[in-house]
TrEMBL record:
Protein name: 2'-5' oligoadenylate synthase
Family: Belongs to the 2-5A synthase family.
Cofactor(s) needed by this chain: Mg(2+)
GO cellular component term, pick one: nucleoplasm
Residue ranges of every copy of the 2'-5'-oligoadenylate synthetase domain listed in the record: 159-343
InterPro entries reported for this sequence: 2-5-oligoAdlate_synth_1_dom2/C, 2-5OAS_C_CS, 2-5OAS_N_CS, NT_2-5OAS_ClassI-CCAase, NT_sf, Polymerase_NTP_transf_dom
Organism lineage string: Eukaryota, Metazoa, Chordata, Craniata, Vertebrata
Top EC class, one word: transferase
Protein source organism: Mustela putorius furo (European domestic ferret)
Superkingdom of origin organism: Eukaryota
Keyword Membrane: no
Length: 362
């Protein structure tokens, strides 16, 4: 019901985390990161070295919503020497982390509450738990994910060595696990969104807020939220690319892109590109897949749009209904309009679709 001209205020007062909230997340992350780096594997039967702990998810990217107290921590282990090893051994590391957290609880260092069934699989992907600590006013939810440190000491804004992606592509194809190892590229995913202007992050928050409302209304299946975040970045890059813009126009542009899900084919060339023959051929194959396609800018094996049109169809129906709401109308009742996000046809020969929404951004 919020009119278009008040969207910025709505985001500021309803969606932006306040200072106390941000401090709470920061303190909670510090507690668990210190535990993982300094205490967790001290008594392990084999020496385990944590090379780094990276904060991912919304709090890492700087796009968290008010009131959602959660954090993803990716723990990079020297003992995982390949993508295959990450797949095979992460379960044992997750169980060891759980044992050590329980030991801390017995010593009353902090309290943890584990998600029921989070370790029911033989090779769980993550350990989910809630942390309670005297310093924290409320519980904070964590997902801890062990990962192979394929990037090593990556420096901001640099492209990783192409060999990193060649190895990734070959192992993913051999294992038939495309997109499985995106956690290894958390630093790149985080960098990709964190560097955006403040107002773009606000637009991402607004889109996420809308998506959460859709999720509550529709239930599953829906596209993954990360796909909507990337779609928002794409809409801004192509439609505005300015630090100041109309929030209502940006929001409407994203919803219109959702309506065009059956044509979406979006990728970036910030961390990988077509110059290497093996990577280039693989990318051409990825981009020829059925729509929608939104490649993870950090991981070319990950189509975050999912490749299945049905979840997008459900979301598009909701987007169509929303386009008539007051947040897309000016004070006189006229439509705010949307950005002109052009269709690039220069690379269309790569795709079987007659009129793909086909774009590349560096």
């Amino acid at each position: 019901e919020t009119p278009a001209k008040y969207l910025d205020k709505f985001i500021e007062y309803r969606l932006l985390p306040d200072t106390n909230f941000r401090r709470q997340i920061k303190d909670a992350v510090h507690i668990i990161s210190t535990f993982l780096k300094e205490k967790c594997f001290q008594g392990a039967p084999h020496p385990v070295r944590v090379t780094k702990v990276i904060k991912g998810g919304s709090s890492g990217k700087g796009t968290s919503l008010r009131g959602r107290s959660d954090a993803d921590l990716v723990v990079f282990l020297s003992n995982l020497g390949s993508f295959q090893e990450q797949l095979d051994k992460r379960g044992e590391f997750i169980r060891e982390i759980k044992r050590q957290l329980e030991a801390c609880q017995r010593k009353e260092i902090f309290e943890v509450r584990f998600e029921v069934g989070s370790l029911q699989w033989e090779k769980p992907r993550a350990l989910s738990f809630w942390l309670k600590h005297p310093y924290l006013p409320e519980e904070v939810e964590f997902d801890v994910l062990p990962a192979f440190d394929v990037l090593g000491q990556w420096t901001n804004n640099g492209q990783p060595n192409p060999e990193v992606y060649i190895t990734l592509i070959r192992e993913c194809q051999m294992l038939e696990r495309e997109g499985e190892f995106s956690t290894c590229f958390t630093e790149l995913q985080r960098d990709f969104l964190r560097q955006r202007p403040t107002k773009v992050k606000s637009l991402i928050r607004l889109v996420k807020h809308w998506f959460q409302k859709c999720k509550k209304q529709l239930g599953k299946p829906l596209p993954q939220q990360y796909a909507l975040e990337l779609l928002t970045v794409y809409a801004w890059e192509e439609g505005s690319n300015e630090t100041e813009f109309s929030m209502a126009q940006g929001f409407q542009t994203v919803l219109k892109l959702v309506l065009n899900y059956h044509q979406l084919c979006i990728y970036w060339t910030k961390y990988y590109d077509f110059k290497n023959r093996i990577i280039g051929q693989y990318l051409q194959g990825q981009l020829a897949k059925p729509r929608p396609v939104i490649l993870d800018p950090a991981d070319p094996t990950g189509n975050v749009a999912g490749g299945d049109s049905y979840p997008w169809q459900r979301l598009a129906e909701e987007a169509r209904a929303w386009l008539s709401y007051p947040c897309f109308k000016k004070g006189d009742g006229s439509p705010v309009g949307s950005w002109d996000v052009p269709v690039r046809r220069s690379a269309s020969s790569l795709s079987p679709s007659p009129h793909p929404l086909y774009t590349a951004w560096g």
